[in-house]
Amino acid sequence: SGELYCSLPKPRNVHFESINMKNILHWSAPEGTGDGVLYKVKYSVYGVGKWIRKPECRNINRTWCDLSSETSDYEEQYYASVKAFLNGMCSDWMETTRFNPLTDTKIDPPMVSVSSTEKSISIILTAPEKWKRSSEGESVSLLQVYPGLQYNVSVLNKKTKKRWFFSISNNTLVVPWLEPGTAYCVSAQIHVTTPLLHSGFSKEYCIATLKDKTA
Amino acid sequence: TAGNKIFHFGSCRISMSVTEIRSGFTAIKANIQARDPVRTLSILSYPHSLHKVKSSDRCCITHHLFNFYVDKVFKHCKTEDSYVNRKISSIANSFLSVKRKLGQCHEQKKCMCGQESTEKFNQILANYEGLNVTSAAIKSLGELDILLDWVE
Questions:
Q1: What's the CATH number where B135 sits?
Q2: Percent of chain B scoring above 70 in pLDDT
Q3: Is B146 in Cβ contact with A77 (below 8 Å)?
Q4: Could you tell me the pLDDT band of residue A3, with boundaries at 50, 70 and 90?
Q5: List the disulfide bonds (chain B) (predicted).
Q6: Cα dist. B142→A98, B59, B79 in Å?
Q7: CATH code, domain with A146
Q8: Range(s) of the domain holding residue A94
Q9: A6 occurs within a structural domain
């Protein structure tokens, strides 16, 4: 490819950062280099013979490259590699470890919506969607990707500071026998048993039960 | 044991400690895969992914694969790292128990092999025999998540 003798140090820490299967390749500049370094990126499907260049990440000076589209089939595994150029010099390619989108992605917390009656609160949880090419593209919930997906739900009585935890498989929960006119705060987390994955807890969503009309 | 899950392969039902196997593999995945420099060949996925196997053939392929890992893979995966070796033997023990259960299903005629599963398994064996034993065993071990992702 007409490249010069490659004496530049390699890019460092080349790795995928993945959230909801939005798979971004990240790396650090070669040791001892300041500004002006350019990069190019290639990727390959594990078990398939060829490396594929990513044109949108050719001669770039940023240290990341979005490979979500190229790695969207989560039944496959991938490698990616980065090469650096500076002042006519180049580096060797620096590769990631094998990337498995199914097990190596992080999952966002679920969306939480709450409503209340006098003595109960109802909670509806929505799992995040898998990354998709465009907003018009077909939405795939992570629930479809991980059939064993469950929700851990925390409910806090703001007055007594008492907290309950629930683990549910479906996405709705009604918490009965609560105190009227009292504020409760709900937070939820996604938990997948195999492969073992879990999101952080969502922020708290607080709501008050209705006042007791008979009181 | 922790994380036992019941798997249904047609009329063959077996419990498998998937979480235990997964966590064992996750602990050594980077180490084992780093020992496999061949990016261009997959033992389990070449030329076709396991996901292409018909559901009627799933039991037979799973039975073949657990036998394959017990008989041809784990024993050739000795490393210089005692931690890795311990994890490998723990995974091997889990596989051994699943292999026995699948064997019982096979004996009870609940795990029949069709032509497709036989062809697919022969392809896997051909991929394995295309490399020297140690490289083939390490590559196969490094593909354990491919097997687990498919089984689940």
A1: 1.20.1250.10
A2: 98
A3: yes
A4: low
A5: 12-105, 59-111, 60-113
A6: 10, 22, 13
A7: 2.60.40.10
A8: 12-103
A9: no
User: How many structural domains compose chain A?
Assistant: 2
SS3 A156: strand
- State the nearest Cα–Cα gap between A185 and chain B, in angstroms: 31
Residues 45-74, chain B, touching A (beta carbon < 8 A)? 45-46, 49, 51
Quick check: bond before A195 cis, omega within 30? yes
Q: What is the pTM of this model?
A: 0.90
B61-113 pLDDT tens trace:
999 999 999 999 999 999 999 999 999 999 999 999 999 999 999 999 888 88
Domain end call among A103, A127, A153: A103
Q: Kindly state whether residues A77 and A124 are assigned to the same domain.
A: no
CB A30 within 8 A of CB A84: yes
How far lies A134's CA from each of A57, A67, A69, A131, A150, in Å?
19, 14, 10, 9, 27
Please tell me if residue A169 touches chain B, with a CB cutoff of 8 Å: no
Over residues A3-7, mean pLDDT:
72
Residues of B in contact with A49 (CB under 8 A): 40
Chain A residues with CB-CB distance to B23 below 8 A: 196
Q: Are residues A91 and A162 in the same domain?
A: no
- Helix, strand, or coil (residue A104): helix
**ipTM over the 0.85 cut-off:** yes
Q: Which of A103, A133, A151 is the last residue of a domain?
A: A103
Of A47, A97, A148, the CB nearest to B34: A97
| Distance to chain B for A173, nearest Cα, Å | 25
